[in-house]
Amino acid sequence: MSQALKFLVASSREVGMKALKILFLSLGLLGILGNQSWGQDPSAGYGTPTPSSIGNLNDSDNQSPTINPTRATLSEWILYPRDAGCCGPTGKCKSGPILLETYFRTGPEFTVGGGTFNNVLQTGWNIGGGARSLFFNAEADQAWVVDLGISNTHYNSNNREANIQLFNLPYLDRSGEFGIGVNRAITLNPTVGIISLNTTFVNLSGGKEYYLRGDAFNKDNSWRIGGDVGGRYGSAKTEFVGFPNLKDTVGAVFLSIHSDLQIPFGKVNLIAGLRLEWDYIWNDVLQSQNNSDLSNISLLYNGGIQF
């Protein structure tokens, strides 16, 4: 048994040594091939000898024209060069580049209209994020924008008095009045007070950007303004005093304007600015007899990275 084990170990060691030899041989070949081709200018090929180089050569030299390597770089599709006349004799391209921008937003949300919620909720706090596709013109100083993101806002109540009447709400009675360990589903008509409201949305909007200073590819800081309009769809959860939470599916529309500073940073642009937003939320979580709609104005910090 020990001899068989020794044989297996020796065989494994021999196979491993052969594998290492093959690996080193492969790496050597790749290195030789890489030294011959890496970093060369694809447009140069092997070139045609210049008169000066031909004059310095003879049959005994056994030499070939010298080819100077160039630095590897990103493709033109990514760098998007916009030289004059790049798109024909007029120098006017029919369309510009498409860039992607990811963002993070946060700030206070002030209730300014609606019904019951507007009367009892304090200023909320909004937090969200998402991505924007920017479709630029040829000069890269204007862009149509499509924005997809998510957001969450939490509001606390400044009045928890039980003065909101709800009807026919299902309730699971766990008091044990009808027997130990027995639960019973009942219907209640409670009068409740509100503790908080929390909303979560998926947001979709479209808009336009205008660069007042520089453009999307400016080497110095640029300044832009813009606006968009869109819709929201999500859920709302309300916490009550002495009664279980209630949830409802909600929808909203919104309008916004913003102003941003664009700062070049390596291969990307950093975005920092402010966003002013108005929205109107349709909400039936407090039932039809209580107006649950809510209107807000938000002042948000907007930060992002543009690729």
Q: Care to describe what's here?
A:
This protein is α+β, with helices and mostly antiparallel strands. It folds into 2 domains: 1-35; 96-306, Porin (Beta Barrel). It has 4 helices and 12 strands; from the N terminus they run H-H-H-E-H-E-E-E-E-E-E-E-E-E-E-E. The protein has helices at 2-37, 51-55, 76-79, 116-120; strands spanning 98-114, 124-136, 142-156, 164-165, 169-173, 184-188, 191-192, 194-213, 222-240, 243-265, 268-282, 294-306. Strands 1-2-3-8-9-10-11-12 form an 8-stranded antiparallel barrel. A hairpin with a 2-residue loop joins strand 10 and strand 11. The chain is elongated and about 70 Å long. It starts with a helix and ends with a strand. 21% of the residues are buried. Mean pLDDT is 80; it is low at 30-48, 53-57 and 83-93.
